[in-house]
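Field reference: "sequence" (input) and "structure" (output). Example, succinate dehydrogenase:
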Amino acid sequence: MNLTLKIWRQDGPEDRGAMHEYQVKGISEESSFLEMLDVLNEELFARGEEPIAFDSDCREGICGQCGIVINGIAHGPEVTTTCQLHMRTFHDGDTITIEPWRAEAFPVIKDLVVNRSALDRIIQAGGYISVNTGAAPDAHATPVPKQDADRAFEAAACIGCGACVAACPNASAMLFTSAKVTHLQLLPQGKPENYKRVVNMLNQMDEEGFGSCTNIGECAAVCPKQIPLDVISTLNRQLGKAALKGV
C-alpha cells in the first residue's frame, strides 16, 4: 500500500508543534501499525532527518506502553492496542492522521510520546493493598464467589495505556481509576482499605488535572481491554459509602 501520513511533530512540552506530511510506499497489509512507522523512520534516518518519536515496548498488547490517536480515534479504528493494529485495516491511497494523547495531565515529551506518570501517581495514592496478610495462603483458604472473582479479573485487565483519557472529551481518568478500585474492593484482601483507597485515588486524580466524568462512554468504547463502563458506578457507590462513614 502507498499511504499519506499526517503526523504531529513537537520537540517538547513548550514547543507549539505542527502536523507534518509524509509519504510511505510498499507497505504490506500484514504489517502492524508500528512496523509501518518503523519503515517511515528508517527512510527518515536514511535521508538524515530526525525519526518520529513514539512509545512501544512489548508490542503484544500487554504492557500498555503504545498509544496514538489514529484518525481521531484512540488506538485506531479497531478495539485493540496500537501495536496490535494491522495495516489491513486501511486501504491503498489512504490518508492517515496520527496524533499523541491529548490531555493536560499527559504533557507531550516529544512527537507522539506523552508523559503518563500521572496514572502512576494515582496508583501510588491507593491502588494497592498494604495490609499484612502473612505468608501466601492456600488458593482455597479464602473462598471468593465466582461472580466476584470474574468481575475482579475483568477490571484487573486494565493495562493503564491512557486511551480512556485520550478519548474522553473531559480528559477524565475515571475509567482507569474505577477499574483499579473495583478489582481490589471485590477481593477480601482489598476490603479493609477500600473506602480510604477510593477517596485518596480520586483526590489524586483531581490533583493531576484530569477532568470530571460526565458518562459519555467514549472511554469504554476505545478501551483495548474492554473494561466495562459500569465500573464507574461501582466506584461512585463506594465513594458514597465512604462519605457516609466520614472517610
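The chain has a mean pLDDT of 95.
Residues 33-46 form the longest helix (14 residues).
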